[in-house]
## 1
Amino acid sequence: MRFGLILSEVGQGFRRNLSMVVSVILVTFISLTFFGAAILLQLQIGQMKGYWYERAEVTIYMCVASSPEPNCAETAATQDEIDAVRDKLENGALAPYVQQVTFEDAEVAFQNFLDEFAGTSLVEIATVDMFGADFRVKLVDPAQSEVISDGVTGMPGVEEVRDQRALLQPIFDVMSAASYTAVGIAALMLVAAVLLISTTIRLSAFSRRRELAIMRLVGASNRFIETPFILEGVLAAVIGSLLASGAVIAIVQFFVHGYLAETITDYSFVGIQDALLVAPILVGVGALLAALSASVAIRRYLKA
């Protein structure tokens, strides 16, 4: 009987403040959609880092005659210098860190350049003397790329050592910044949702002030009086959270898998299982924030 009475009070609150309840639902929906998208983006960044870092190589560029680097002194690397670098990678102190070494001489590098930029004006001015030999080193542990860099930098004939991880990091930094921006927008929207819930609960309590006074006179406890108002806020927030969960799942299903995964087939993306893991988090965050804000609002109103 008491439970039925509480539910009827919740229904009355929804009817009397329908526009405010709809606002709470929409704001919660938008904010938690941003929040869920930010979580998925962080998961995607983690997957991409693992994928690309495993394939990242350290490239050792040997000197060419036109190189201005002090270690080259405008002199191309000799065969002995190239052999010394190769020996250190394959048989020397660096060998335990190296999984595979791929060597490309100047002629091959020049031909690859011609194939890649065929039909452009660059091909007309390029000469084989502009290209030097290089080693592409795949590591056993890509996180130990500094060992290779420190080991060969400064060796005779070495112009530059370039870690592909350093080239990828700015891309991941931009994606992380986008994720944090989404979290910031979601936080602002959640603050708006909390304020809306508090306002809705106060308006609902004010519209039923006579009923509340009667309930107090007949000995109803504060907990019994507060419960319908808290449930109003929680129910509105849960509806918005469920809509946000559906939106996140739809984004993964139709955009990530329906478009990105078919367009970019080189690596995997976050899946439905990840979205299904995020959905309970969104519902939990929405319900918790609503319960706290509604509880504080109604208690402050009853004490006033």
Note: The chain has a mean pLDDT of 80.
## 2
Amino acid sequence: MDKIKVITIFGTRPEAIKMAPLVKQLEKNPRIENKVCVTAQHRQMLDQVLELFNISPDFDLNIMQSRQTLTGITTKVLEGLEEVFLQEKPHLVLVHGDTTTTFTGSLAAFYQKIKIGHVEAGLRTFDKYFPFPEEMNRKLTGAMADLHFAPTLGSKQNLMREGINEKDIFVTGNTVIDAMEFTVEDSYIFDNKELNDIKYNTSKVIMVTAHRRENWGEGIENICNALKDIVEQNEDVEIVYLVHLNPVVKDVVYRILGDTSRVHLLSPLDTKETHNLMNRCYMVMTDSGGLQEEAPHLGKPVLVLRDVTERPEAVEAGTVKLVGTDKGNIVDAANKLIRDSKEYEKMSRAINPYGDGKASRRIEAAILEYFDMEKINYKEFS
């Protein structure tokens, strides 16, 4: 084998953020021919990341449709990738995390008997419906994968309990920390003027995202009503809510918070804007998985608007607290961080358990070793 032929697949913004530094790392290696295939499960938000990291996909399935269903995404990705794989015949397919693109990309590779590498492997809540459909997406991907790139020791242990051979698991840290080395700037000026006008030095700015499928309906309503109470009870607080474009979320958020003073409702920002807002804010409230990893790297406490998390390491480290979607719990937890400086310091200074900025290099080394191209001694992340 002269070169390892790899196809890296992703389709959503969170996947793209975390795969971009790995794509850039693999591009530099003369022993690896890396091609990028995007499904565009999310179109606009995905394209923002591609532009930021200067990545031009070799294949673009462009599947996104308004109000798309999980079944629709699955069938389109499966059919589109079959054509790509038959044409390219890669040695390895890399997928990331837990999206429908991830699961379907793995299934398409399995059908062609192509080796599968799973980046961010081993995360579990142990409840197949929370988060939905992510928990089953990652479990099913794990069952098909040949190389498991676990971000933490806890994730590795999850995989081993499921019968995955330890020699096929590599503890790498999370590639999102690699990505932040490219994006965060202390003197950053936002493209969004409204963000530049916020007084970060005198206000306690809370960055919010909440859009997960299991929170649709009552969950989002409770979150929005809690945010309304928080800002009304604390005159020094401003909230920046990055509102998902899905009407199921957007309509509820604007109905409840649209006229609330000191609440800024913005469309999702590109990756660089998001990371720099996170760097300037006081704390983060989210139901996102990725922000639970990113915010602690910047010393920002995170209140997770979910009842369970597949990232227990952050809870154990003290950088993250689960508050669920009960209005009272959310308000109480937020007020404690806003008003209790000792509680805030304890969370903001906890050590981030998710990475050191070298995950992509560890993954590259594991791929080379797996295909007998090069033996690289490297220290696993711990």
Note: The radius of gyration is 20 Å.
